[in-house]
Amino acid sequence: MKLIFSFLFVGTLTFSQQLTLEQANHLATLPIKCLQQEYPNKLNQLLLNTTELLSPKELHPAFYGCFDWHSSVHGHWSLVYLLNNFPEIENKEIIIEKLKLNLSKDNIQKEIEYFSKPHEKSYERTYGWNWLLKLQLELEKSKLNSNLELANNLKPLSNLIIQRYIEFMPKLLYPVRVGTHNNTAFGLSNAWDYAVFSNNIELQNCIKVHANRLFKADENCPFDWEPSGTDFLSPCMEEVGLMQRVLPKQEFLIWLKKFAPKMFSKNWNWETAKVSDRTDGHLVHLDGLNFSRAWNMYALAKSYPKLFSHLIPIANQHFSFSLPSVVDGNYEGEHWLASFALRAFEEKK
Questions:
Q1: Contact (Cβ atoms closer than 8 angstroms) between residue 218 and residue 239
Q2: Taking Cα atoms as reference points, which of 44, 41, 36 lies closest to residue 76?
Q3: How far apart are CA 159 and CA 141, in angstroms?
Q4: 240, 256 in Cβ contact below 8 A?
Q5: Among candidates 278, 164, 196, 159, which has minimal Cα distance to 230?
Q6: Of 151, 164, 214, 305, which one is least surrounded by beta carbons within 10 A?
Q7: Four-point Cα dihedral 285, 289, 290, 294, nearest 10
Q8: What pLDDT, on the 0 to 100 scale, is given for residue 234?
């Protein structure tokens, strides 16, 4: 493991500029390992009676691995992303076979049946929903026939999730601004990307209307309040990321000047989040926070290079600080951090 650690960490600037095939091979080993690892497992299940006491694989035959449902979903996304971007990746056939095994029509139908239970309407809302639509997008834009077939298999569940968004968002009177699963801004970001990709005007309008309703009046985000003890998303930067998506460019800059004026300063800096114990499943969340900050800063600098190119070194610092923890051998982080690292790279490239 130390060799892998050194390999991934050496040449920090190299990784921040370009993900190599060798690094992609190493990152792929983590979701490959956990995609069909049933235990340990956190179900987040509401039990009505003893008939619902079933194993994770029985309850969620598509997304039972990688500790919990949403981590399994973005573990699948990681592998599809790597297949799409690295045609020569090692273990390609194994990856394809694992994806086919999990994302079969029958397994997706069972996932739909679980989500259709009246007492599970809020299941994985909105963090898991958001990642599922990112997986759907990655499958649909693939050039691999096997991925396109899986996109068709997954589509009925994605359609159900889209309807859940449209039903739920008008009921959400106040945004959730925490840096964990319930963060509203992050919960809409990947959903927006899929709505644009698939030309789903109804979902686009839903997200745009409610993002503006919930966040348009915000000013002076308290950057100094980050991080909270177990954040894995940046409340300030995820809101920036969402509003960058839904607002026209000039309108977004006017909003950002009020929301995050300090980010316009070329001298601004932001200390990385430190992790005291990476064997603690909650404390290791802070590595995710560093990746969350990084991917949003990369996106901002990419869209507005003249205004925000000074954010790239800050994003690189956050990214490089937490990259080694992706392969440190602790399952607490391994089962999900590769996805966050790849998400940051996706914005950087």
A1: yes
A2: 36
A3: 17
A4: yes
A5: 278
A6: 305
A7: 150
A8: 98
The CA distances from residue 315 to 135, 194, 275, 344, in Å, are 24, 25, 17, 9
Average pLDDT, the chain: 94
Give the pLDDT confidence score for residue 349 in this predicted structure.
Answer: 79
pLDDT value for 17: 53
**Nearest 5 degrees, angle CA 70-CA 342-CA 203?**
55
Type of residue at 289: L
Contact 31, 79 (CB under 8 A): yes
Of 298, 332, 327, 296, nearest to 313 by C-alpha is 298
Structure tokens at 81: 């992303």
**Alpha-carbon span 126 to 102, nearest angstrom:** 22
Q: Helix axis angle, 235-246 relative to 201-215, nearest 10°? A: 130
CB distance 301 to 264 below 8 Å: no
The tokens describing 57, both together, are 């694989």
What angle separates helix 184-197 from helix 235-246, to the nearest 10 degrees?
30
For a pLDDT cut of 90, what percent of the chain falls above it? Answer: 90
- Structure confidence by residue, pLDDT tens digits, 247-256: 999 999 999 9
pLDDT at 11: 42
pLDDT at 126 over 90: yes
DSSP letter string over 134-177?
A: HHHHHHHT-S-HHHHHHHHHHHHHHHHHHHHHHHHGGG--S---
Three-class SS of residue 43? coil
Question: Which one-letter amino acid corresponds to residue 180?
Answer: T
3-state secondary structure of 255: helix
pLDDT at 333: 87
Q: Is the pLDDT of residue 205 over 60?
A: yes
Record the tokens describing residue 220, joined without a space: 């002076």
